[in-house]
Amino acid sequence: MQNKKIIILFAVFFSVIFSLIYYFLFTVAFVSPQDKKIVLYMNQVGLYEQASGVESMMKRLQEAGLEAYAFEKDGLQAVVSGVSRKEKETQANGDKLSQLQQNYIMKKVTIEDPELVALIEEHKIDEVLERLNE
Fold it and tell me: Using one digit for the tens of pLDDT, what is the confidence trace for 78-106?
């Protein structure tokens, strides 16, 4: 009877160990950075031809405690706020924009470029936005 308990204990122990090894091999080890996709959400608050419009909007957003980013898009300067990997955070930013009576368009961008994925993980949003529109 004692031998049966030991055999069952070893069987359970080794099954757990091998399960963890297979999990690691097939989920962690084989997923390369090139396979990563990241979705960014952001609220676009304006497109401007003149730098003065960009500066005043960025100042307005920053005075309200919101982060603001500007980048060139199709020959115009775009101003965005609430850039996040989480849709709920961007929606919360949109609620704050609504309280400021600021119109916005929520955008969703899927990023597959490994270099951009690495920049996002380093929280270099300015550089990511610039490189998205190259």
Answer: 999 999 999 999 999 999 999 999 999 99
SS3 133: coil
Phi, psi torsion values for 42, nearest 5 degrees: -155, 155
Strands (E), the chain: 38-48, 68-73, 76-84, 105-111
Q: Who contacts 131 (Cβ-Cβ below 8 Å, separation ≥6)?
A: 115, 116, 119
Q: Pairing state of beta strands 38-48 and 105-111? A: antiparallel
3-state DSSP assignment of residue 31 = coil
Which whole-number Å values give the CA distances from 124 to 8, 66, 69, 96, in the listed order?
52, 17, 11, 23
The answer, as to whether pTM is greater than 0.85, is: no
Residue type at 93?
Answer: N
